[in-house]
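Today's session is about reading a structure prediction critically. Students often jump straight to the picture, but the first step is always the sequence itself: look for stretches that repeat, for charged clusters, for runs of hydrophobic residues. Only then move on to the predicted structure, which in these notes is written as discrete structure tokens rather than atom positions. Here is the chain we will use throughout the hour.
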Amino acid sequence: MSRSTAIITASFAPDLERCRLLCETIDKHVTGFSKHYILVEHSDVGLFRQLESAKRVIVDEMDLFPKWIRAYPDPFYLGRRRVWLSLRTLPLRGWHAQQLRRIAIADKIDDDALFYCDSDVTFLKPFDCASLWRGGDLRLFRRDNELLGKLPGDQQLWADNAAMLLGIKGAPVLPHGYVGTLIAWRRDRLLGMCRRIEDVNSVHWLQAIGRRRRFSECTIYGHYADDIEKLNGHFVDTRDLCKVHWFAPAPTEAEFRRFIKDMEPRQAAIAIQSFIGADIEYVRRLISE
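Below is the predicted structure for this chain, in token form.
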């Protein structure tokens, strides 16, 4: 039985050129997917329309979110940034909204799997999305025991909040990490995760998550698949498909070349995190040589 996989990217205006490069390299290197959905805030839809194609769709978050939450200019940043406001959640920032879009899209498409690619990912090698499947099981990226022996930090808070949202009681959640730039989720399990959150919290899943500003959608799904579903429908893979440069400063040209050269055989893509200030045209030039 063949399984369908959609590629999902949540983006915003400042990442347009990074997202353009992602699209170009998907078109060049990636196969085995139905469509590529780019999820953006309403005010960014017109800007991102230039990236649309026969296999690429721009999705307005107003078609994803309930009507009771909307984005507004943030007065604390003189309108240069956006804030998502609702009487049912805490005020949310753009990185929160992007995570919530990645969950909400599951209710709007019917593919079996959602393959999430961040805007700052660039594919350098052929990649077939069918390789995410092993029979009827989908790859779950997991960093085994990542939280063991670490001082409390964001990832522990994400895990604790995931446990509360999912109603995991009586024992700590598994000490693994699930965050990555190229990860896949089963749509049926994602919908099940939303139902579980609603059953546990007696409110809409977005409202339950939005009451907590310290959350990670990757962590919530990872713990649902691992702690609740006991990996039913998944197989664990601890190898990262993407080589990531996480921290400033941006790599020099020599460091960038070495970074690419040191990619592991399984890795098909790189990511230079957008917040470290690397010039995207510089990245484009070096990968095209």
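Discussion point for the tutorial: The mean pLDDT is 92.
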